[in-house]
Every structure is written in C-alpha cells, then in structure tokens.
C-alpha cells in the first residue's frame, strides 16, 4: 500500500507557543492536532488530521454502554541530534488488530495506523521534549459509534490518534501487594487485549491496596491465585538466583508487552538467562526465605522500567533496596540508550520520522 497523504486542517490557536515543557504531566496535556477516521459501510474513510478538540457522541453510543473500545500506548523520542524516533510501533499495530478482533471490531490498515501516526507526529515534532525520561506519548484508539442500545457489534467506529508530551511516569519505587481475591484476566477472557473494560475493572482492587499503603497489586491467576501474572498495568520480571523470570503469555491472561519482549531480547544479549514460564507465589516466597530473591520490577511503555521496593503476600513482606538493584537499572539504561541513539539500533526497533 502506498503512503497516502492525509488532509490536514491546521489549528489556528496552537497551544505550543505558550506551553511550558517543564510542567508536563503524563496524560494531561495534548498536542494541537489529532488524527480521526470513520468506519462506515465496511471501510475506513474521512481520514483527517485536525485541531485537537472535543467531539459529540449520541447518548446511546454503543461505546458508552457496552465498552467496545480498544487502545494502544506508544512513545516517540527526540535525541540530542533532533532526530525523532518511535519505538517499535509495528508491534503495537499488530496488537491493536489482535485486540480489535477479540472485541469484534474492524481491523485498521497499516496506512492508517502507521503512516497516519507518522504524519501526525511529523506535524507535532516541536511538541516532543528532549529531556531524560521524557517523550511524546502516542495514544491510538478505536470506539464503537452506533447510536443503538442493542447488544451487538457496532457497524460504525471511529479510529483516532492523540498525542501528549510526557515526563517521567511513576518515578518513585512502588510498594506492591500480591492480589489473592480479585482478578485482572481469566483464560478465555480478554486479558491479552487492550480493551477499556480491563482497566475499569482494575480500579476497585487497586483502591483497596492503596487503602492498605500499597501503590499497586501483583495480579495472580484467576483460578487459584497461585501464579503471578502482571503488576498493575505492566508486565513483571523477577530476578531469582541470578536468573530473570517473567510470567508466560501462553494462557492469554498476560498482555504481550512490547517492553516485555524487548527486555527479554536485551537481557539475553546482556548475558542473563531469561525464562518465560509459570511462576508461583510459593516459589517466590521460598526463594526469598533462602536469600535468592534479588529483584522484582515492572516493564511497560508508560513507565518503561518501574522499580519495586516492597512486595507483600498477606503478612509476609519482602523488601528490596532499590539502590542495590543491578538488572532493572541496566535494562532501563539499555532501552534508553537505544531510544536516544546512543547505541546502534541493531534490531531495527526505531521508526525514524
Ligand atoms: C499496555 C500493557 C502492558 C505493557 O505493554 P507495552 O507494550 O510494554 O506497553 C502490560 N500489561 C498491561 C495490562 C497493559 O495494558
């Protein structure tokens, strides 16, 4: 498919000239333009880049009632030479369409998702901060648009991409409690998809954890709560006796993270043995009792690598000195060096804009 040129309506009142790049907070500020496309009669049409603005939906809009909605999270970076790169958007494109299929939504073509993103970012390149741990967060999403209260797949959809400058996300190390009652995902469910409902359903259990002094939960399997799956909205990695272990994605209850996959590749190259397998809470506690449990951290696009200073299972508390971590900071540096062009991108992970 050849690259299409998407019509642009320029924002006549851009915020950029007066925007304070020192005041950026994740998810709160958006750039001056957005990409919008409509799905009708079996095809994507009306593709446009236009001023970022609210839009109207009918109160009976299917998305509002039944949650037929999916999204992605991607980051673009500006290196010291002023070059703009996007980290592995091809993987997000694949996952977006996997999520779409699971939610009975139409897939989007590459010219819309990738080329549309490229054109939008190119227009907004002055919004990309060039600071350590800062980036442009890219949020593609799709929503069902039918004004109809019957439960059936919508016939009409909107695909949109919005962008926002982002500083460091969670910077403080997190305290985590192992969840023993609520679940994020079940085999046969939608845990592998980035659909809205997964996130709404996580808020209550996380709020209970916060009442008890924790930041987030470590999700366990839905059946027995014996095997660990993810931490908050991130994949999770453990370092036990020098080996890196991350939960298997086999059952469809662990999201196939792009950062997770990148971490597996990089850590293996750095000489670590990396295992993708089922990992039980009992094994973790046992390793801790033997003094072999060295590190646990979250990996995901938003926070990249998140340190964990405390992991608790009921009354059993495991503390980690974040200043003594080795694997997590080394991984963070490696990912950062690739994105900022400090080392060669030998895997071809960067899309240059
Ligand atoms: C998005 C997400 C991740 C991280 O995936 P990345 O591709 O690395 O950003 C992990 N778990 C859940 C539940 C997510 O929604």
Q: Would you give an account of this structure?
A:
This protein has 353 residues and is of the alpha+beta class. It folds into two domains: 16-166, Aminotransferase class 4, branched-chain amino acid transferase, N-terminal domain (D-amino Acid Aminotransferase, Chain A, domain 1); 174-339, Alpha-Beta Barrel (D-amino Acid Aminotransferase, Chain A, domain 2). It is 23% helix and 29% strand. The protein is globular, with a radius of gyration of 21 Å. The two termini are 18 Å apart. The mean pLDDT is 95. The structure holds pyridoxal-5'-phosphate (PLP). Pyridoxal-5'-phosphate binds at residues 73, 194, 230, 233-235, 255, 257-260, 300-301.
């Amino acid at each position: 498919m050849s690259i299409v040129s998407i019509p642009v309506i320029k924002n006549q009142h851009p915020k950029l000239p007066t925007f304070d790049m020192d005041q950026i907070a994740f998810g709160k500020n958006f750039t001056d333009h957005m990409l919008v496309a409509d799905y009708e009669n079996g095809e994507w049409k009306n593709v446009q880049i236009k001023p970022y603005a609210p839009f109207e939906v009918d109160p009976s809009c299917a998305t509002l009632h039944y949650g037929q909605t999916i999204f992605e999270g991607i980051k673009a970076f500006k290196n010291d030479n002023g070059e703009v790169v996007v980290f592995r958007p091809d993987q997000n494109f694949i996952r977006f369409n996997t999520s779409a299929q699971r939610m009975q939504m139409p897939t989007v073509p590459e010219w819309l998702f990738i080329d549309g993103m490229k054109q939008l970012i190119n227009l907004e390149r002055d919004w990309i901060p060039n600071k350590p741990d800062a980036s442009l967060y890219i949020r593609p999403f799709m929503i069902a648009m039918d004004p109809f209260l019957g439960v059936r797949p919508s016939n009409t959809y909107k695909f949109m991409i919005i962008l926002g400058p982002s500083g460091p996300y969670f910077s403080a190390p997190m305290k985590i409690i192992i969840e023993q009652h609520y679940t994020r995902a079940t085999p046969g469910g939608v845990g592998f998809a980035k659909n809205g409902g997964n996130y709404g359903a996580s808020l209550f259990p996380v709020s209970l954890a916060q009442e008890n002094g924790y930041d987030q939960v470590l999700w366990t399997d839905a059946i027995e709560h014996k095997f660990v799956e993810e931490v908050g909205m991130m994949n999770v990695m453990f370092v036990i006796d020098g080996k890196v272990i991350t939960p298997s994605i086999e059952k469809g209850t662990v999201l196939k993270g792009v950062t997770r996959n990148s971490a597996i590749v990089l850590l293996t190259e750095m000489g670590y043995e990396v295992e993708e397998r089922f990992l039980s809470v009992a094994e973790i506690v046992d390793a801790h009792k033997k003094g072999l449990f060295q590190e646990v951290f979250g990996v995901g696009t938003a926070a990249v690598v998140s340190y964990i200073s405390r992991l608790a299972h009921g009354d059993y508390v495991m503390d980690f000195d974040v200043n003594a971590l080795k694997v997590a900071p080394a991984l963070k540096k490696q990912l950062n060096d690739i994105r900022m062009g400090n080392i060669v991108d030998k895997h071809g992970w960067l899309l240059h804009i």
